[in-house]
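Good morning C.,

I know you're traveling, so I'll keep this short. The sequence:
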Amino acid sequence: MLYRFRKSLATRRFYRLTRAVLDTPPMPVVPGPATFVSMVANHDVQMYVLSMKSLYRRIGRGQLLAIIDRDMPDLARASLRAHFPGIEFQILEDIDVGLCQRGGTWERLIHLLDRTRDGYVVQVDCDTLAYGADLSEVVDCIAANRAFTLDGGSGAGIVTLEAAARHARAEPHRYVGIAAEALLDQLPEASGRFYVRGSSGFAGFAKGGFGRAALEDFHAQMARLLPERWNEWGTEQCASNFAVANTAGACVLPGPKYWNFDRHQDLSKSSFLHFIGANRFDDDRFAQLGQRVIAELQAA
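The tokens, ready to paste straight into the viewer:
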């Protein structure tokens, strides 16, 4: 109860401190080689505008797609169109999940992998922020049709399934993602497959890379290995990590330039941060960096 109350207060404070992003100039969509896909909940519109303007200003081009709930108010949709003329919408409930589960952001992963039939796709969470001058690694990955992900904290990079499972079994954490990783070496043909403990908060998927059929196979195998927990929140990130790692030429973006936020890190060494989970609003760092981005947008 106390945690939820504090989180609610911190969230309202963040939105108050970054409210000015809604007064920044529109950022029209410019056709490009990639599509940037984000799930935008009804209460995340302002955060998405900040996140995507911070990134798109540095990338410069590419299609924008927001996955939205069917009940998103018309006013919220109009706001997104006004800030990003040319943005596309995909209704969450209309995404065909096929043989995979619904919920837990699986719809997002399925949809963006379907779109890799036609081009490169970047998944961008609303709680990410680009504030450095140079995102050349991302631009280069898109140009080279090379999949990428953020480092999820292990620092191990892309490893064999045997190595990933061995590492996970040595951890005491009960999180479903780690429980799933501990079973990866039991997948069929495990010796020829790979894994990365990355972050689905920011990940690039190559055109013609890891497709729906491969995802559905992975989903079915993991549901067999972890039947009582595979529907928990967090399994989609495991699947995203598997999809990236098993795409030829994939890479992990270099840290600390691209990083998951930690209140103890030197933020001056980073250019892109994912403000994940419980640490999202610590010390107002997200809002403070957001205000810097807003000032840039206003001056542009």
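Safe travels,
E.
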